[in-house]
Every structure is written in C-alpha cells, then in structure tokens.
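Sequence only, no structure available. Ideas?
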Amino acid sequence: MHAHFRSHVYHRHSHETYSFGVTDEGAQAFTCRGGHHVSTADMVMLFNPDDPHDGHAATGPGFTYRMIHIAPAQVEDLLVDAGVSRGGGPLFRTPVVADPVLARRLRSLHTALTGASMPLRQHEELTSTLRLLTRHAHGVPSAREALAAPASALIARRVRERLHDAYASPLTADDLAAAAGCSRYTASRAFTAVYGLPPSDYQRQLRLRSARALLTGGASAAEAAATSGFADQAHLTRWFRRYYGVTPGVYRQAVGSR
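Reply:
I predicted one. Tokens follow.
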C-alpha cells in the first residue's frame, strides 16, 4: 500500500500479517499496545499479527506512507533460512521506531514488490529487510495471549475459533459463551483482554478480510458483501473504507490492474 491521507480516520483494527510501514511525509498518530504513538518522516511502524491499532493525521497537511503486509509463516521461514532465527517468529517491542537505514530498506523493498522486479530480486530485498528488522525484535516469541491468565487465554481461543468458523453467520453472545463454556460476560471480557478487540469488531474484521479476498479474486462488491455476511453492498462499502481507506470498487480496480 502507498497512500496519502488528510481526513481519513482508520477504525481500530488488526491484520493477520506482520505489517511494516514507513512514513514518507507528514505525521501519523495512532494508538497501539496501550500507548499513543506518532510516526513522522523516516520513522518505521512495526505491527505484529493481530496488533490492534487505529490511525489518523497528526497535522493538517496529512501524511504519506507505505505499508507492506507479509504472512507470518513467510517471515518466519525467511528468517530461519537466513540463519537469524530458530523459528517462532519475532515479536516487535515497540510499534514505531526511528531507524533511517531500515526506512530506506523498506522503501526499496516496497518498490521491488510493486514494480517489475524479478522474483529473485524481490526475495533478496525481502531477506535483507528482515535481517534489519530483527534488531527491533523481542528475541523470545510471545503474544498478548501469553500475558493473560491461562483460563482467560483458553476462553479467548475458543471464542476466536468460533468466530473464524462462522464469521459470516449472525452469531450471538450466547453462541460464543456456549463455545467457550462460560458466561457471556466472561467470554467477551476474556476475548477483549487477549486480542484487544471486542468479539463484534473482530467478527467484522474477519468479514472484511473475506470480502477483500473475494474482490481480489474478481468478485463484485455485491457478491463479496453477500458471501461475507454484510447486510448489503452499502454496509460493506462503509466499513471497507473505514478499515482500508478506499472503497471496494477502487480496491477491486487496483488489484485488477495489477
């Protein structure tokens, strides 16, 4: 992704991927991991999978930034192959760092991935970038789940599994409680504590990911909305723009042209 925003405000969300970004111009403000952060020119944003965050312009002129999303398995495989990790994947300490060298490397990687670079060149750029990224990694794989009480973590996992199994269905609080084997309040509280989002936000996010995949595959916005569990195309459009900054139609056209 490469975009400029002035008035757009990202709804709180997370990605199923590692997400690495660099701010080109201006300043972006966001909340993540219980803190408030600002990314200015040449600063790098490091989001772990399922890291809830939002985002908006910190100043009137807005901000320009680029973001690269990489599947966790691919990150971990490349780090193992490069000899800088024994598996499990890094967990980044802080969601924004000042690292001009890494910022330049991310820009170069972004150009390679979105341009006409050969696959070998893309792989080399990705591997060298990941090597630099490890300087900001935690070193010991962890997760929000590991910080929760074992009982809460188990409840949260069960709720998450139920949401993934039936994200397009009109699930109720009773459905989640039954899946977790506890009260509705306990299920919701445990899930929110572990994953940083209420179950309803997480379910909507799963629907949006499904719709995005369908649009990438050539489905119309109406088809993507119906299949993913949205009430109608307008409902999908409203939330798609809040999460991704563009409408489903613009997104479909962009991926189609590539």
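Residues 202-257 form a domain with the Arc Repressor Mutant, subunit A fold (CATH 1.10.10.60).
Hope that gets you unstuck.
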